[in-house]
Amino acid sequence: MTQQRIAPALVPAFAPDGVLRASINLGNPILAGRSPAGGDPAGVSVDLAYEFGRRLGVDVELVVFEKAAASVDAVRAEKADIGFFAVDPARSEGLLFTAPYVLIEGSYLVPEASALTENGQVDREGTRISVGSGSAYDLFLTRAIERAEIVRLQGAPAALAALREGEAEVAAGIRQLLEGEARRAPGVRMLPGRFMVIRQAMGIPAARGTAAQDVLASFVEEMKASGFVAEALERHGVEGALVAPAAQLPS
User: What's the pLDDT tens digit per position in 148-161?
Assistant: First the structure.
């Protein structure tokens, strides 16, 4: 595969100060976390950030956040130059996205004794769903849930704790994270299937323009087609996430 060529005139659109600031969300363990050796950020999004910086010919500075909403806000406010987010209509203002590079399932976790057996039973009166505030599944459920109550908390650990402590009947989140919680300690179980697919993409501040968006979109498509994303998922031991299918780019 021919490597994408980035015109020098477009480099300042991504790194106006000569350094590419990449917003990294550690709240999504599928894409990034702390390395066991040293605690530095590591993961698929980190690998993509460094590779894109290499293409631009600039150094990369990781701007690290514990929550998706803070990571999104940093790019929207141009305190970071690129970011890695779930595509959602509620995040469209002030941002330009690529097509997704990874697909992740959003699922439900319930107490072992819960009468709930399938996703369609969750949206009913008297059910409290705990979620990480500002997460992709919070945004989705805000539009989709009509009868249940959404309990928004500061991050996924708080949402899981609320379920354990009886402050919610259901916890919503990334499937792999919920499966890990179910393995960690007895007393909870997954509902089968998924309630949504989270489409993880790259994004830039809207002020950087559509020419920059096109460059980033082409980079994402190359990273998928070349096997870079698949190899990064394997290297970091990520299971369950899928490489997104190829997108049709403008000719």
Answer: 999 999 888 999 99
- Chain position carrying tokens 């792999």: 176
State the Cα angle at 44 between 43 and 50, rounded to 5°. 90
CA neighbor of 171 nearest in space, from 116, 131, 117? 131
Calpha distance 84→68 (Å, rounded): 9
Q: Evaluate if pTM is beyond 0.85.
A: no
Kindly state the helix (H) or strand (E) to which residue 189 belongs, with its residue range: strand 188-190
Task: Label residues 13-41 b or e (16+ Cβ within 10 Å = b).
Answer: bbbeeeebbbbbbbbbbbbbbeeeeeeeb
147: Cα separation from own chain's centroid: 27
Q: Give 199's Cβ-side CA count (13 Å radius).
A: 14
Pairing of strands 102-111, 242-243: antiparallel
**Residue 82: helix, strand or coil by DSSP?**
strand
DSSP per-residue string spanning 43-67: SHHHHHHHHHHHHHTSEEEEEEESS
| pLDDT tens column, 83-93 | 998 888 878 88
* Cα 15 from Cα 203, distance rounded (Å): 14
Q: Reduced to 3 states, what is the DSSP secondary structure of residue 248?
A: coil
Closest CA to 51 of 78, 12, 14: 14
Which distant-in-sequence residues (6+ apart) come within 8 Å of 219 by Cβ? 4, 52, 55, 98, 202
